[in-house]
Amino acid sequence: MSITNMPQQQGLAAYVAVTAAYWAFMLTDGALRMLVLLHFHLLGFSPLQLAYLFLLYEFMGVVTNLAAGWLAARFGLAATLYAGLSFQVVALAFLYAMPGDIEMIWAVVYVMLVQGLSGIAKDLAKMSSKSAVKLLAPDRPGSLFRWVAMLTGSKNAVKGLGFFIGAALLALIGFDGAVLSMGLVLFAILLAVLAFMPSGLPSGKKEAKFKDVFSKDRRVNILSLARMFLFGARDVWFVVGIPIFFYGALSDGSPEANKQAFFIIGMFMAAWIIGYGVIQALAPKFFKNRAHDEKAITGLASSLLLGVVLIPLALGGLLWVMGADVGHVVVAVVALSLLGYGAVFALNSSVHSYLILAFTSGERVTMDVGFYYMSNAAGRFLGTLLSGVSYSLAGVAGCLIVSGLMALASFICVRRLKQV
Predict the structure, then answer these.
(1) CA torsion sign, 261 to 233 to 123 to 23?
(2) How does DSSP classify residue 215?
(3) Are 260 and 250 in contact (CB under 8 A)?
(4) Is the sign of the CA dihedral 282, 202, 378, 396 positive or negative?
(5) pLDDT of res. 309
(6) Between 47-75 and 8-42, two packed helices, what is the crossing angle to 10 degrees?
(7) 50: number of CA atoms within 13 Å, CB side?
(8) What is the DSSP secondary-structure string of 322-341?
(9) What is the pLDDT of residue 69?
(10) What's the chain's Rg over C-alpha atoms?
């Protein structure tokens, strides 16, 4: 049965199953990010070493997205979705089995390799879910934008909850207990998805060629470059800079202060991602008069990016002038400003997610979405590296200033997109 003649009820069931699987994955992905960051910070890892822990995760995202579009076209969307969930279970198992007496340098290498496997898992699941929406959404004006926004927004809300759960589990049951419990839950969900996923998603075509991954559509290529700079701009402060900045401002290093700081950091990271997800899900309502107008949405993408440029530059300049003399009031100002930044960033991300699916065709959807998210992963890789380097050289102020400059590069790309 093809997607085009799949009964509406079965198509909706497939969409629900895909979304549920993606939710389960992103919950553990967000929790694992906070667990690794805070646990290894306590063990004495420097900001640059913490960035290294996530570099292979992001690099494998680049590689995986480049290949995932071809893999899905060759073996089917359901197969790549199941593979993503399975790899995450294996990654959690390896992290749980990490020797306790391992030397620092080997600990960095071990966790990098585990995170690399998790990066493969994340982008297999992500590409599969996003591509499925293109094929399952009803063929009506505005439907694609609404379905994409619903999946992406809900995913980020769930991932935000994962950030809080990860920090909370670390404070309550420790690193090993948290990793084990997440692995068992995700394995149970994988079994449920295998049992209940309805048929109907494309099963793959043997004639799909790897070279077809590279897009010949100039719009897809320019949008992908803009996406790379956009997500690099976020991760340059998000991955290492802000969590470590908040920890330094909120904790004196005592066990009780650490627990309090973990909860506050987890709450902020969760609030940022959940708010980001809510705004993404509501994006079609904000743009309801333009939801099926590609040119109007492209114009909005350009205007919205100005907020992503100006807010981190202003915050970075403020913190640069203040130096190390920051108190709880400054931390609160930074937190509130970045929550506002998150709202603008979410609208940008939602517009991009819509445009990539609007630009591609049903025949090329896995290829173009894979290529697009390869650029997304390349931006996260670049942002992660610059996060550790910028924080080491100039603190969180340096992270924010570099973030603004990367957003400016994304703005220039989107301006070019308007001319295509």
Answers:
(1) positive
(2) -
(3) yes
(4) positive
(5) 92
(6) 160
(7) 29
(8) HTT---HHHHHHHHHHHHHH
(9) 61
(10) 21
Q: Is 361 exposed, middle or buried (0-12, 13-18, 19+ CB in 10 A)?
A: exposed
Question: What is the structure's pLDDT at 4?
Answer: 45
φ, ψ for residue 353 (rounded to 5)? -60, -35
142: left (phi over 0), alpha (psi -120 to 50) or beta: left
Structure tokens at 333: 């100002």
Element (H, E) at 105: helix 104-136
Output the six-digit token pair for 376.
């997304």
Query: What's this model's pTM, rounded to 2 decimal places?
Result: 0.71
Q: Mean pLDDT for each consecutive 10-residue tract of the chain (420 residues)? A: 47 67 81 85 80 80 71 69 86 86 79 85 74 60 63 75 88 88 86 70 53 67 89 90 86 82 86 84 65 63 82 91 73 90 87 76 65 83 89 90 94 79
CA distance 159 to 24: 9
Locate 372 and state its tokens: 């697009």
How far, in whole angstroms, is CA 47 from its chain's centroid? 20
Task: Tell me which residue of 345, 351, 67, 30 sits closest to 167, measured CA to CA.
Answer: 30
Question: What is the 3-state composition of the chain as percent helix, strand, coil, each rounded to the nearest 5?
Answer: 85, 0, 15
Q: Would you state the pLDDT for residue 202?
A: 52
Around 382, how many Cα atoms within 13 Å sit in the side-chain half-sphere?
19
**DSSP letter assigned to residue 210:** G
The domain spans of the chain are 8-198+212-417
Strand runs labelled E in 161-320:
none
**Residue 65 to residue 144: CA distance in whole angstroms:** 22
Rounded CA gap, 130 and 151, in Å? 8
Class of the CATH domain delimited by 8-198+212-417 = mainly alpha
Segments in 43-76 forming alpha helices (H)? 47-75
Cα separation, 173 vs 177, in Å, equals: 6
DSSP conformation class of 189: H
b/e burial code for range 218-240 (CB count within 10 A of at least 16 → b): ebbbbbbbbbbbbbbbbbbbbbb
Question: How many residues are listed for the chain in this entry?
Answer: 420
- Predicted confidence at residue 141, as pLDDT, reads 52
CA 30, CA 239: separation in Å to the nearest integer?
Answer: 12
What's the distance, CA 72 to chain centroid?
A: 20
Tell me the C-alpha distance between 223 and 373, whole Å: 11
pLDDT in tens, 119-169: 888 877 777 766 666 655 555 555 666 666 676 667 777 888 888 888 888
